[in-house]
UniProtKB/TrEMBL annotation:
Keyword Chaperone: no
Protein family: Belongs to the DEAD box helicase family.
Motif (Q motif): 2-30
Protein name per the record: DEAD/DEAH box helicase
Claim: Nucleotide-binding is one of the keywords in the record: yes
Residue ranges annotated for the DEAD-box RNA helicase Q domain, each copy included: 2-30
SMART domains listed in its UniProt record: DEXDc (SM00487), HELICc (SM00490)
Any one GO molecular function term: helicase activity
PROSITE patterns assigned: DEAD_ATP_HELICASE, HELICASE_ATP_BIND_1, HELICASE_CTER, Q_MOTIF
Length: 503
DNA sequence: AAAAAAC
């Protein structure tokens, strides 16, 4: 374990780290921070959730602390593929640049340019941006990139997926060649390799190897339906939500239109749900995500905009209303739960149309999720209303385990190195009846008694642009403990666990 | 196959 104090960070930065409660660095942080502080380029091959954001934010804060911002001449640039991810980087700056005079601005689309332009005119040290808005502002002559000493590219392979590579290339060329570059990607397809050989100078390659994909902290279930009729799927979803002791959950759909329909339907049935996807107004996206993070919204119905990288600690359930067409997305989706050592349950609804997609998912995760069977009656619909004393809805469907699945004994984590191929130990099959179901691992230790706070004002979006954000008090802070790895919240627990493999 | 991202 590497202590933070060993990494060459200044007392001010260390204090900001200490304030978050972390003392030990994750592997990517332990490796990347000294290299970056030495002024060298970094090629970080790491998934989201390895503590990557702090691995580049901290050296950035440290390296920039000395100089001063000039009008329209930012000194550092961080690029992220989605608005929400860019916002997360901004939150990281908010934490770690606290003791410095460093200023930053979030440059993302979907919000007015006014505040962004004002901040640029005034002079800002760090731009945290999605490529589209950055180039838009650049073309309008709102900033020069010739003063950029440091550039960070986050989630490069996702940028590739999204068609951003020409933009990234262009932005690279707008910055001076002598800049220092910190480049992160989960995978290294040829296009990305080409980019790094072209724009990075003798980078130090740092690899947090691809982690194991599932763990005993995440219990995965699969529900087969005889039909792909949307009504039946929605009824099944309601039944599952009603059955599970959902504290908060994300429902993933493959299409934006489906997100809207499912969210609307859930609301009509009395569930506390709201949609999030790329076609929705940015202020709504921001507000919805903030409400979900704050525990004010129970169910987030999402497209894959929310599948990757989003740091929402403490999601108790993930529902795959649709089987992810891209198997990687399934792993990212379920990785939204089971974080920070908490238990999580995931449910995947499978219809006869989903065979191909399901095959790909099962191949990737190398295990067979337990299959649940819903009563025909449940497909008529369950409602969340009228709780009994035991906290369960009277019309909670009984979920019977139809499979002969066996469970692996809990194994000690084998670290993040390589895929664990532990064979599951054969144990007597556990048939889950209505009785044993209630004795299932407690997912939500917390009662429903969460204080409700008013939703955060939309106006905060504007505040963010200027780098003078409102109080952070309502953004559920990371739990403070003394001796846990730094950035632990960012690591889905399942990344550190053994894999269950169907015997 | 779809999502994401600039106006």
């Amino acid at each position: 374990m590497t202590e933070f104090s060993q990494l060459g960070l200044s007392p001010t930065t260390l204090q900001a780290v200490a304030d978050t409660g972390y003392t030990t660095a994750t592997p990517i942080q332990a490796q990347a921070i000294p290299v970056a502080l030495a002024g060298r380029d970094v090629l970080g091959i790491a998934q989201t959730g390895t503590g990557k954001t702090a691995a580049f934010t901290l050296p950035l804060v440290e390296l920039l602390a000395k100089g001063r911002a000039r009008a329209r001449m930012p000194r550092a640039l961080v690029l992220a593929p989605t608005r929400e991810l860019a916002d997360q980087v901004a939150m990281s700056f908010e934490k770690y640049a606290k003791g410095t005079k460093l200023s930053w601005v979030l440059l993302i689309g979907g919000v007015s340019m006014g505040d962004q332009v004002a901040a640029l005119n005034k002079g800002v040290d760090v731009l945290i941006a999605t490529p589209g808005r950055l180039l838009d502002l650049f073309e309008r002559g709102k900033m020069l990139l010739t003063g950029v000493e440091l550039m960070v590219v986050d989630e490069a392979d996702r940028m590739l997926d999204m068609g951003f590579i020409p933009d990234i290339e262009r932005i690279f060329k707008l910055t001076p060649p002598k800049r220092q570059t910190l480049f992160f990607s989960a995978t290294m397809p040829p296009e990305i390799t080409r980019l790094t050989t072209q724009f990075l100078k003798d980078p130090t390659r740092i690899e947090a190897s691809r982690p194991a994909m599932t763990a005993e902290t995440i219990t995965q279930y699969l529900v087969r339906l005889p039909t792909s009729d949307p009504k039946t799927k929605r009824a099944a979803l309601r039944a599952l939500i009603g059955r599970a002791d959902v504290r908060n959950g994300i429902v993933f759909c493959n299409r934006k239109s489906e997100v809207d329909v499912v969210a609307k339907s859930l609301k009509q049935h009395g569930f506390d749900a709201a949609p999030i996807h790329g076609d929705l107004d940015q202020s709504l996206r921001t507000k919805t995500l903030a409400a979900f993070r704050a525990g004010e919204l129970k169910l987030l119905v999402a497209s894959d905009v929310a599948a990757r990288g989003l740091d929402i600690p403490d999601v108790s359930h993930v529902f795959n209303y649709d089987v992810a067409h891209h198997a990687d997305d399934y792993v990212h989706r379920i990785g939204r739960t089971g974080r920070a050592g908490k238990l999580g349950q995931t449910f995947m609804i499978v219809t006869p149309n989903d065979d191909k997609a399901l095959d790909k998912v099962l191949k990737l995760i190398k295990m067979a999720p337990e299959e649940l069977v819903l009563d025909a009656a449940d497909l008529g619909g369950a409602k969340p209303a009228a709780k009994r004393e035991d906290g369960r809805s009277p019309d909670v469907p009984k979920i019977a385990d139809s499979s002969e699945e066996t469970r692996a004994d809990a194994r000690p984590a084998r670290g993040r190195s390589g895929r664990n191929r532990n064979r599951a130990e054969t144990a007597p099959a556990v048939v889950e009846t209505a009785e044993t179901a209630s004795a299932a691992p407690p997912i939500a230790a917390e009662p429903a008694a969460r204080p409700t706070k008013p939703a955060r004002p939309v106006q905060e979006t504007a505040l963010r642009q200027s780098g003078r954000r409102g109080s952070n008090a309502d953004r559920a802070p990371a739990p403070k403990t003394t001796a846990k790895p730094f950035g632990d919240d960012d690591i889905p627990a399942f990344l550190r666990r053994s894999v269950l493999i169907k015997a």
